[in-house]
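Exercise: predict the fold of this chain.
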Amino acid sequence: MVPDADSTPADGASEDIVTIDLPLTALMPLQKRAVKKAMMARLEANIRSVGLIEPLLVYRHGDGQHYILDGYLRYQVLLLIGHTTAPCLVIRTLDIYTPNRQVNFLGRSQRWKMLEAALPHVGEEALKAALDLREVKRGFSPNQKAALCPAVLEREQEGRLSKVACYHLMHVTHERQQEILDVSDKAGDSSSAFIRAQVLRTPPQQRLQGPTRRNPWNKGAEVRKKLVDRLIEAERRHDFYQGLYRQYANDLIRLATYVRQVVTTKPLREALAQHHPDMLKSFKQLLEQCGDEIEAK
C-alpha cells in the first residue's frame, strides 16, 4: 500500500514537502533520458557503496499516482540492483523545471580537488569503489609523459609549472620545451598564458601533433570550419522550411478552389446548410481568409 503523501510532515520539514518511502512500482517517471554507460556505472557503484544519499523528488497526482520530477537515473539504478522501495520527497506542486535546474555540476578541476581532499580521510580503494574509478590520483598518461621532457615533468611535480602549461608544451619537441623553459626563467613568468605564447611562436620544424588531435595551430581553422558548417546547416533548414511553406500555400489555394465550387453550387450548399452547418461555416471562413468574400456570402 502506498503511504499517504498528505500525512504529517517530519519535524522541521516544510508543510508542502513530505518525506516517505515509496515502492518503486508506485513511481512513474515524467521525463526519461539516456546517459553514457560510464555515468550509469559510476552512479550504480556509488549507490551500492554508500546507499542512496539524495531522495527522489516526486509529485502526487490527485488520482494517487506518484510522478518522478527529479531522480530518474537513481530510480533506474535502484531497479537494476533489486531495490523495492526508495526514500522520496513528495511535493504538492507540479514543477518540472525548477528541480532539474538546481544542480551545479562539478567541473573537472573541481572534481579532482574534491578527490584529493577526500583521499587522506577515505582511502583510495574506497573512493575507487564508490565512484567506479580506475585511479584517484591525477597525473599524466604514459603518452603524455613521453611527450614532455624531464625538466618539464620535474617542474610540474614541484608545483612550479601548471598542468595546463604542460599540455601546451606537449605540442613541441623536447629541445623546444627546454628553450621555452629558459625563456620563462629569464622573463620570470611561468604562467600558462606565457607558455602558450611561446609555443605559438615555435618554428614549424619543432612542432608536434601531440597526444591529442587538436593543437594550438589548427584551432582557428577548426573554429572557422564549425562556423561554416553551422551556416550551411542554417541555409539547408531555411530552404527546407521555405519549400514547406510554399507547398502549404499551394495546397491551401487548391483547397480553396474546391471549397469555392462546393459553396457556390446551390444543391451542395443547401445540403451542407441542412445537415452540416458547422462545416459550411468553416468553408466560408476559409474562403474569407483567401480573400474571396463575394463567393462566401
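Check your answer against the key: Residues 107-138 form one domain.
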